[in-house]
Amino acid sequence: MQKLPLRQSLEIIRQGSLNWVAGRPIVVSFEVTDSCTCYCRHCDHGGPKDDSRNLRPAEYARYMQTLKPCVVQVSGGEPLMRDDLEEVVRHIKQPNTLPYIILVSSWSLMTPERYLRLREAGVDQFSVSLDFPDKRHDEFRLVPGLYDHLNDVVPKCAAYGYDDIVLNTCITSANLPHVNDNADQARKWGVNLCYSAYSARRTGDRELFPTDLVQLRTQLDQVEQRRDGTNWLVSAPTTLQHTREFFENNGRPGCKAGLRFLVVTADGMLQPCSMHFRRYPLEQQKRLVEEFTMMNQCDECYVAIRSNLDKGFWQLLGENVKRYFPVGGRAKAANC
Length: 336
Description:
By secondary structure, the protein is an alpha/beta fold. Helices cover about 40% and strands about 10% of the residues. It has helices at about 5-20, 60-65, 85-90, 110-120, 135-140, 145-160, 180-190, 200-205, 215-225, 235-250, 285-290, 305, 315-325, and strands at about 25-30, 70-75, 100-105, 125-130, 165-170, 190-195, 260-265, 270.
């Protein structure tokens, strides 16, 4: 991943620090639609839904003014199903270059032309789901031809040279033997890669939770051995270590959902995360923290949004300065 412009880096540090002190979220995930093109085995979304109550693009500005996150995930469902997605992004982006916007998508509907339009609208990073480095990806998501589509469109978009595409592999028992094969695929396509952890809480399917700890350690040890100066593995070493511990311990306590991060549903309600469905109006984020975060005993997930925030302030700041911010040298970070 390319390092961020200095102005944007300083704004993220400033706003993130203010939010940490004020008890506002660092990251907000806007689920802009519940509809999806996929029916993934590890996800509780899937297929078309009633989108009649989705927030309109202009309504997102009010959420930004109130919550003031320095990072936003735009997700779903499948966000690319919204024809007005570019307008949604424009109303999320602020004049001071914040927030850093990550579009989370299967890329089943992505084209090079839309990739460029979304970049122009304000998307800083494209997170592309990849479960398998071959056509088993189609079977896992029940979308025939999806892998071939990615094999065509991802390299085409990467060829523009913006270095803003990150494959995300959610580690499950099904793809555990292929954790490093997906890293090879990222190399082949000329893009970056991160890992996240499957949670059985989302679907209730315990069979997808990895239990072969020997293979887990072997695969993640190999991941660590592959790091180099190109920064193509963007999962921090501490994040991967904590992910390993999550699987080994069958959980990880101490979640700060609702405080450090939260979800805004497609119809505009606040949720602590995508797997706890206590809903609050925008003006009641502090009540959400009091009633949910401070009482939360859930240890059942270590998804990407949590794993990248589940650290102390100085560690979180230091890791992100090293990874993304233009401090200390080269155009790309030496480690991730």
